[in-house]
């Protein structure tokens, strides 16, 4: 997906001039972001670069001190994570936030449990466990997750990759507009990481844009369409896997070179 392709399209999510300070510490210093339909936008940066602060401002976990947010071109003001969810933005944090003692289906519908129809649901407040398990299985199948067949299986019995799949499937099922993934492969082995990367590509193929925060450069360059580089609270540049090498992206991220210098090397 090239920048010329994006020129003719309206971003699903935009941020302009985001500023966030913590006392004398500047977390964000006038950051702009654009996320387009059906793309994976990776956000990379060294520790303290402002990645987490940026994502929290985009998803309602933090309120920026200045700047504007737009969803589908309309201004929004997120004061809490639920506001972002209501706008169709689902976030999977590094800690996953799954309930280990509950089964797969219950985790998928965590906070959105469905009750049984009629008297059993309205008066006795019984949950529609059968229906939730059926629809959870359909959601998993739609995302190509074949390693999870039993929706009644407790999440605590799953591998790390399977737990991540449950969290991503939950976001894909209810994130009507945007999915944000915070270090989804950080604690996973090679095989499980590969499964999660395939899942990200499957989500993108369904037209859902994804924001991916990751320290893993090979993973970023494998799935990202564009790469937003954070450095010292600012955006140091936007690159693509086709325009810049992994080494150049890391050099921009660490301050060893600038975006314009890296472009000169790429075209020279």
Automatic annotation (TrEMBL):
Against Pfam families, the record matches this protein to: ABC_tran
Question: Record's superkingdom?
Answer: Bacteria
The protein's matches in SUPFAM superfamilies, at most eight in alphabetical order, are given as: P-loop containing nucleoside triphosphate hydrolases (SSF52540)
CDD domains referenced in this protein's UniProt entry, alphabetically = ABC_Carb_Monos_I
Molecular-function annotations in GO = ATP binding; ATP hydrolysis activity
Going by the UniProt record, its keywords in alphabetical order are:
ATP-binding, Nucleotide-binding
The record's section on InterPro entries has: AAA+_ATPase, ABC_carbohydrate_import_ATPase, ABC_transporter-like_ATP-bd, ABC_transporter-like_CS, P-loop_NTPase
Q: Which residue range or ranges hold the ABC transporter domain? A: 13-257
- PANTHER family in the cross-refs: CARBOHYDRATE TRANSPORT ATP-BINDING PROTEIN MG119-RELATED, SUGAR ABC TRANSPORTER ATP-BINDING PROTEIN
Protein name (database record): Sugar ABC transporter ATP-binding protein
Source organism lineage?
Bacteria, Bacillati, Actinomycetota, Actinomycetes, Micromonosporales
